[in-house]
Design brief:
The complex is a heterodimer of chains A (146) and B (534). Chain A has 146 residues and is α/β, with parallel strands linked by helices. Chain A has helices spanning 35-46, 60-69, 84-97, 116-121, 134-145; strands at residues 4-6, 22-26, 50-53, 74-79, 104-109, 126-128. In chain A, helix 3 links the parallel strand 4 and strand 5 (104-109). The longest helix of chain A is centred in the middle third of the chain and has 14 residues, at 84-97. The radius of gyration of chain A is 14 Å and the shape is globular. The two termini of chain B are 30 Å apart. Chain B has a single domain (26-432), classed as Methylmalonyl-CoA mutase (TIM Barrel, Alpha-Beta Barrel), CATH 3.20.20. In chain B, strands 5-4-3-2-1-9-8-7-6 form a 9-stranded parallel β-sheet. Chain B contains 22 helices and 9 strands. The chains are: A alpha/beta (146), B alpha/beta (534). Chains A and B meet through strand 1, helix 1, helix 3 and helix 5 of A and helix 4, helix 7 and helix 18 of B.
Chain lengths: 146, 534
């Protein structure tokens, strides 16, 4: 799959809490709203992470495969179409099938509050929305990934 | 979440970075650059009689679940005084997948209505007079197909094609940049767009076969200046394509329309529309020698809402939409869609959709802001910003030309990267508190309600009903006719110069599905390869 990898250059010290982490930012399904995914990807890179972005319209199988092949610590799924329940469940199942249930899954996009508990039950480690400051998202990821 | 500082500043620049003079005066106004309403260069609007001649179309974007569900919502909106329909389609229909496709299944009926074949569209418009109402479709990758389906629906209902009014968005260039419902590579997509426009000019002379849209790149991160610049640049790319195909610009330019986003910066938005209208007329006149005044007219619709609406304290969004709608009116929009206050996080409820509709009716009939043409024309600040905006738009268009044109900028991923960087800047400004969002980064309350009152849920059985209907149509349609029309479509797609529209209409009449038509064209043209850059 055609993906893009990026790392921060010469950006040391306390501003890079995600240094050493590899994170896959992915767009499952048909949703074409990729700007949130790209903004988060750029912000994670600036925070020191090595970020891989899948591009649009990837199947859960493709995403799990890339996550395993690239040996990432976490997968961030961006979904704004309202299909998060099905798509997250499928990605989690695909990761499990790949024997990669240890890869942390995060979700960003339009996820109503009432769906948070169900996603958490699937094993999702964090859910973020566009009104949250990027620093908050980065801090939460850094804490979750140790 | 705590606020960055207790009290935000007013600021001295617009969102796009234009300096706003503290005291603007007559020295900033050049009457020669402004002109009169309804005449070149159209700064003051395309009609001499403004909204007195014809009010803007009140057109609420709507669609979800099954065609039956959406038909009921349309009837409700029309009964409440809405004057045009705007069809929201689900992602499978937009991306060219039938509902049974594994990629499609989770998305069926979610962000819009599922329309996989003619039978669904017949249900969608049941009891609605297509000869009397104008219908807009936000459709791009499969625009030619949905337009063909609309023609087939009209044929079946006995509505003469020449009576049809409405719009298909049909602007693929911005899909590659921001909205993401592309299917084919750039070249065959441009061909399909030229096919549909040239066909529509003959078959449905009152129908707009394209709405060149800046709204989505703006929503993604572009500034107001970039929004207009990218849109005009895309517009010129379509003009060039149509001329290459032998189209008569005096004719096709009359039916090019545009679509924009209105953000919160009131005067900047008004200036953007006035500047864009003026620059478009100048470009067509100077570069292409267009003299027909109707062909120079920059007709546009807008969406008020979008990414300026936020989830915290959602009732505040009603105020935001009101301000944005006023800017659209002072900017001279032909058609306005006002988002519902809950649209930032869900499909609107009937109540929230009604408030959005009433907002327009109050502005139109109570406030009186539309009584005088271009009521803010001559305002020192507005004229100054209009000039600044026009110069800024022209400069960004020049940058694109210098890069090698929009098609190259898109295929390389250059434009996409620019917008992503701009989006990060926009987000950082909000996070720092340089951009104020009331209730979110200022004046936030930790206990503030994220949702208000009722929530909307698409019927969970909608997808199952869509699939059941899909299987039924595939089982009951005339299989030979479906295969015959599909084969003809495949042959026409393989040729270089055949207009595909008649073949698509034939397919629709034979109840061939959207996914089947797309697969047949993909077999000839392949798929767009997204340039993934970070």
């Amino acid at each position: 799959m055609n993906t893009s990898t990026a790392t921060a250059a010469g950006n040391g010290g306390t501003t890079t809490p995600l240094r050493g982490k590899r994170i896959l930012v992915a767009k499952p399904g048909l949703d074409g709203h990729d700007i949130g995914a790209k903004v988060v990807a750029l912000a994670l890179r600036n925070a020191g992470a090595e970020v891989i972005y899948t591009g649009l319209r990837k199947s859960p199988q493709q995403i799990a495969r890339v996550a395993v092949d690239e040996g990432v610590d976490a997968v961030g799924l961006s979904i704004l179409s309202g299909s998060h329940r099905e798509l997250v469940r499928q990605v989690v199942e695909c990761l499990r099938a790949e024997d990669a249930a240890d890869i942390a899954v995060f979700v960003g996009g339009t996820v109503p509050q009432e769906d948070h508990a169900d996603l958490a039950a699937l094993g999702v480690r964090g859910i973020y929305t566009s009104d949250q400051p990027l620093a908050e998202v980065i801090a939460a990821l850094a804490a979750a990934l140790g | 979440m705590s606020s960055p500082t207790p009290k935000p500043r007013l600021g001295t620049h617009t969102m796009a970075g234009l300096e706003v003079p503290l005291r603007a005066g007559p020295e900033l106004v050049d009457p020669g650059r402004i002109g009169e309403p309804g005449a070149m260069p159209f700064t003051r609007g395309i009609f001499a009689d403004g909204y007195q001649g014809r009010l803007w179309t009140i057109r609420q974007y709507s669609g979800f679940g099954t065609a039956e569900d959406t038909n009921a919502r349309y009837r409700f909106l029309l009964e409440q005084g809405q004057t045009g329909l705007s069809v929201a389609l689900d992602l499978p229909t937009q991306c060219g997948y039938d509902p049974v496709d594994p990629m499609a299944r989770p998305e069926v009926g979610k962000v819009g209505v599922s329309l996989s074949n003619l039978a669904e569209m017949e249900i969608l418009f049941d009891g609605i007079d297509l000869g009397a109402i104008s219908t807009s479709f936000t459709i791009n990758g499969t625009a030619a197909i949905i337009y063909a389906m609309y023609l087939a629906t009209a044929d079946k209902l006995g509505v003469p094609r020449e009576k049809l009014t409405g719009t298909i968005q049909n602007d693929i260039l911005k899909e590659y940049v921001a909205r993401g419902t592309w299917i084919f590579p750039v070249r065959p997509s441009m061909r399909l767009i030229a096919d549909s426009i040239l066909f529509a000019n003959q078959a449905t002379p009152r129908f707009n076969p394209i709405s060149i849209a800046g709204a989505h790149v703006r929503d993604a991160g572009a500034t107001a200046i970039e929004e207009m610049a990218y849109t005009l640049a895309n517009g010129l790319a379509y003009v060039d394509e149509l001329e290459r195909r032998g189209g008569d610009i005096a004719k096709f330019a009359r039916r090019l329309s545009f679509f924009f986003y209105v953000h919160q910066d009131f005067f900047e938005e008004i200036a953007k529309f006035r500047a864009g209208r003026r620059l478009w007329a100048k470009l067509l006149s100077e570069r292409y020698g267009v003299t027909d005044e109707k062909a120079l007219m920059f007709r546009f619709g807008v969406v008020c809402g979008g990414s300026s609406l936020v989830a915290p304290q959602p009732l505040n969004n009603i105020v935001r939409v009101t301000v944005e709608t006023m800017a659209a009116v002072f900017g001279g929009a032909q058609s306005i869609f006002t988002c519902a206050y809950d649209e930032a996080f869900q499909i609107p409820t009937e109540t929230s959709a009604e408030i959005a509709l009433r907002t327009q009716q109050i502005l139109a009939y109570e406030s009186g802001i539309g009584r005088s043409v271009d009521a803010l024309g001559g305002s020192y600040v507005v004229e100054h910003l209009t000039n600044q905006m026009e110069d800024g738009i022209a400069a960004v268009m020049q940058e694109i030309d210098d890069y090698g044109g929009v098609e190259k900028a898109i295929e390389d991923g250059w434009l996409q990267m620019r917008i992503a960087e701009r989006a990060l800047e926009r987000k950082q400004k909000v996070d720092r508190g340089d951009t104020v969002i009331v209730g979110q980064n200022f004046f936030a309350r930790d206990d503030s309600e994220r949702g208000v009152g009722e929530t909307f849920q698409v019927d969970p059985n909608a997808a199952a009903r869509v699939l059941e209907k899909y299987e039924r149509i595939r089982d009951t349609r005339d299989a030979a006719a479906a295969e015959r029309t599909l084969a003809a479509l495949g042959r026409a797609a393989a040729s270089d110069d055949e207009n595909l529209m008649p073949y698509l209409v034939d397919c629709c009449h034979a109840y061939v599905t959207v996914g089947e038509m797309v697969e047949r064209m993909k077999a000839q043209w392949g798929e767009f390869q997204e340039p993934v850059r970070l």
